[in-house]
Each structure stands twice: as structure tokens, then as C-alpha cells.
Design a protein that fits this description.
alpha/beta, 5-stranded mixed beta sheet, 4-stranded parallel beta sheet, 13 strands, 42% helix, globular, binds 1,3-dihydroxyacetonephosphate, binds iron/sulfur cluster
């Protein structure tokens, strides 16, 4: 089948099976073209409660599909490629954080949504990169344990000087690999360009940015800005999407390291097989896990929605 034929069959099958296709913005363009909802992890989590479909198909990584299941347990939720995980989400587990909590009894535990459902059962509230600052500001407690991403946590701490924020050693291996030398090289090659950076990058890189924000924040900023050239400090696909969306502007990737192999796993044939019920993986969680893990996702929507 050609790409066009695959897409036509996917569009037909998603209508026939009452399936909503959710695609994270890091997915390839041909997948965004067949999706019902595209966006950052906050937008995709909200879609779980806003979309009427019986079935949800996530083109993204495992924790994103889990978040949809937590918010819409009555729906069948599939992850299009069963191998698509997020290394950051696997860095800390429930036992590690339960032990840390014992030594910090007065702290509110704020978990980046890039965590497993099992870990969420011992956390108080979730955040995404687009909602983290607002949610932390709205928490009544000055003492915050922010997990797992120490770079996102440091950026939040910077915006919330009134809070006492403790961080642990965790983060996105893709974003954290970008260095100040990568920024200097990109700036030297494109001296007119603004630098837009995701807060998962290390603080020394974030400090050099003209704008810091989530995937959606970066895309909106670039589209609305009067500037003509941008260096994109997040997954390389975002620079490609922006170049299609704004052909009169120029977008440059920040170096060559910003490629998330997990986000690249999902293909159109994966989507087709998942819609036929022959591929993907169904997210299965018992009622106890759902009840206990969804509290912190509900709290995220209450404080950040
Ligand atoms: P967003 O919250 O910006 O969608 O980021 C998700 C992610 O995995 C970034 O690496
Ligand atoms: Fe996880 Fe980083 Fe990939 Fe995002 S870019 S899915 S945080 S590994």
C-alpha cells in the first residue's frame, strides 16, 4: 500500500471502530495527518475526558496511554507500538519514592506525567511541562518534592522562588544530552535565529534560551513571533512540523542529538494493525491501581486545566 492508501484505510477503520487517534507532536507527519487530536502530553491527557469515542489509540509512548486509561477507565485504550516506552518514566519506582517520602514527611510529591501509573499511586499531583509552573504555584504547601526530571524541576524552582523544591537525579536522556557547546555552534551558524528550548534541557542550556516552554508552547511561540528564524531545542520533529506549518520562516534543529528513538517507533502500519485489533497493546490496569493512580492526574486537571 502507498502512504496515501494506508492513511485512507486508517481513516475508514477509525470511523468504523469508533476510535479516537491521539498523536504526540513528536510523531511523524504522516501520523499527525490521521490523528483526531495532536499536541503535547497535557493536551493528550485532556482528550481522554473530552473525546466521546469508545476506543482510544495512542501514538506516543507508554505513560501517555496509561494516563488516558487512568482518566477514561471505561474506554479501551491501546498503545500503537507496544515497544514505545520513555526511559525517564522508568527511572524511579514506587519503592524508591515511598522510601524518600519517609524522610520528607512534610513535602507534597509532584510527579511529571512522564512516570508509570504504579509510581503515580504514591504521588500527590502530576504536572506536564506546560502546566508545571502554574500547578506548583497553586499548591498550598511550600515544600515540594519534584520527580523525576531534575532539569524541569530546576526550571520550575526558578519560576517559583517562594517554594522549597527538592529534586532527585532523573531526567530525559535525549534533552539532557544537549550542551552549551551545541548552543554556541547553532547560534554561530544561525546568528539571527531565536533559541526556543524545552525545560527538559540542562539549566545551562535553558539559561541561554530566548524562550523556554513545552512542545506546544514552543510551536505557538514560533508561529506567533514576528521573528523569521528559530533554533528548536526539543525533539527534531518539531522543527520539521514548524517548517511545514510556516514555510516563510526558517527552523533549525539544535544540534543532532535531539531524536527520541521511542517516539520514532510508531509507523502507519502499526496504527493500521492496532485498529484491526491485530497489533498494538491494550492498556490493562486493575481497579485498585486506577483508583489510586488517577487521584494525582485528576488533581493535575483540577489545578492546571
Ligand atoms: P511535552 O509535555 O512538552 O509534551 O513533553 C513530553 C515529552 O516527552 C518531552 O520529552
Ligand atoms: Fe521520554 Fe525524553 Fe523521549 Fe520525551 S523525549 S518520550 S521524555 S525519552
Amino acid at each position: 500500500m502507498t502512504i496515501h492508501e494506508l492513511q485512507q484505510e486508517i481513516l475508514r477503520l477509525k470511523r468504523e471502530t469508533d476510535t479516537c487517534i491521539l498523536a504526540h507532536s513528536y510523531q511523524a507527519r504522516e501520523i499527525l495527518e490521521v490523528a483526531d487530536v495532536c499536541g503535547d502530553s497535557f493536551t493528550l491527557a485532556l482528550a481522554a475526558v473530552q473525546q466521546p469515542h469508545r476506543n482510544m489509540l495512542m501514538c506516543g509512548v507508554h505513560f501517555m496511554a496509561e494516563s488516558v486509561k487512568l482518566l477514561a477507565p471505561e474506554k479501551t485504550v491501546r498503545l500503537a507500538n507496544p515497544l514505545a516506552g520513555c526511559p525517564m518514566a522508568e527511572q524511579m519506582d514506587k519503592d524508591i519514592i515511598s522510601a524518600v517520602k519517609q524522610s520528607l514527611p512534610d513535602y507534597t510529591v509532584v510527579a511529571y506525567i512522564n512516570t508509570t501509573a504504579s509510581l503515580k499511586t504514591v504521588c500527590d499531583v502530576c504536572v506536564t511541562s506546560s502546566s508545571a509552573v502554574q500547578i506548583v504555584q497553586r499548591i498550598d504547601n511550600p515544600n515540594i518534592l519534584f520527580i523525576p526530571d531534575k532539569n524541569l524541576g530546576a526550571w520550575v524552582a526558578d519560576q517559583c522562588p517562594e517554594k522549597n523544591i527538592k529534586l532527585l537525579e532523573g531526567g530525559c536522556p535525549i534533552h539532557a544530552a544537549v550542551t552549551v557547546a551545541d548552543v554556541q555552534a547553532a547560534r554561530a551558524a544561525n546568528p539571527e535565529a531565536l533559541l526556543l528550548v524545552h525545560p527538559e534541557c540542562v539549566p545551562s542550556v535553558v539559561a541561554l534560551a530566548d524562550y523556554v516552554g513545552s512542545t506546544t508552547g514552543i510551536m505557538q511561540y514560533a508561529k506567533q513571533s514576528a521573528a523569521r528564524e528559530f533554533i528548536i531545542g526539543t525533539e527534531a520533529t518539531i522543527a520539521e512540523h514548524l517548517q511545514y506549518d510556516c514555510p516563510d520562516k526558517r527552523f533549525f534543529a539544535l544540534g543532532t542529538k535531539l531524536v527520541c528513538p521511542n517516539m520514532k517507533l510508531t509507523t502507519l502500519p502499526d496504527v493500521l494493525l492496532a485498529l484491526r485489533g491485530e497489533g498494538g497493546t491494550v492498556i490493562d490496569m486493575d481497579d485498585e491501581m486506577i483508583a489510586s493512580a488517577r487521584k494525582c492526574v485528576d488533581k493535575m486537571i483540577e489545578l492546571g486545566g
